[in-house]
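Hi team,

As requested, here is the filled-out complex form for the PBG run. I kept the field names the same as last time so the parser does not choke. Let me know if anything looks off before we queue the next batch.

— J.
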Amino acid sequence: MYPLRRNRRLRTSESIRSLVRETIISPNDFIVPLFIVEGRNVKEEIASMPGYYRYSLDLIEKEVKELWSLGLKSVLLFVKVPENLKDNAGKEAINPEGLMQRAIQTVKNAVPEMLVMTDVALDPYSQYGHDGIIADGKILNDDTTAVLSEMALSHAKAGADFVAPSDMMDGRIFEIRSLLEDEGFHDTGILSYSAKYASAFYGPFRDALDSAPVEAQNIPRDKKTYQMDPANREEAIRETLMDIDEGADIVMVKPGLCYLDIVRDIKDAVNVPVAVYQVSGEYAMIKAAAEKGWLDHDAVMLEQLTAIKRAGADMIASYFAKEAVKLIF
Ligand code: PBG
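And here is what came back:
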């Protein structure tokens, strides 16, 4: 007799498929990255990220209200820092009147319930485009974490709910957590970019913020002395477990699609929520192929988001958030 089990029975119609579906994407899954610039009435498309924009503060209000109406309840803020404010020390990063600090207040005023997360790293503020302070041909670890913790504190004071250190210096989670506790910000969370790889997929993001590393003091134009080697797997677990010990509330793997094995490893190894960042290059690839008519944009977008969640992501930072939820609901 033919096998009693026919797996295709559970695929015969959309009704049964939806009943047995194991992974569902919903607005609750998303963190929406937002790029912010100085000025008024600015909405600039990012050349290598078609359909994605930098907004000035007056326009960000409308944008976050729209996100909220779509059920998107958390944003991750990035700022494009004017060239004349960049230095090697990250001075502007801790300016209480800085663009990030004003952006936090603007979003909170527009939609008080919106969860505001902020990028904590020096690269947008660095004249060299690096995530750390430079001296004698080196990226200085501990001098950098001291500034990062001040930066995180200044975001917390401005009203950030979560700070998201994306720099990959050693010990930064401990430094940030300690300072936040000392200053009474017990409820400010830390989403740590724990397993962040030295990936070539960040190119369009660096266009968005004009933050690509430049050749300086014999330091190469890459971030391989602090971000992880894409060849490594065990190191990702080590980094992540250390960040949890140091006080991270949520850990993150970045980029997404090429690193889904890491996502699953980490999901199995930890008992805190795991985030995944589907990065700018992943966004750009889908947009470019779809523009050429080579891929079905919406289907590929949803397939990738589903795959990221299936691999173990409890939440996804994605430039597709808005498009995806519009399609689903
Ligand atoms: C910088 C930072 C980067 C991204 C987030 N924070 C770029 C980098 O490390 O060079 C990349 C995000 C993306 O590509 O979408 N600290």
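Two things worth flagging: The chain is about 40% helix and 20% strand. Residues 13 and 103 are 47 Å apart (CA to CA).

Thanks,
J.
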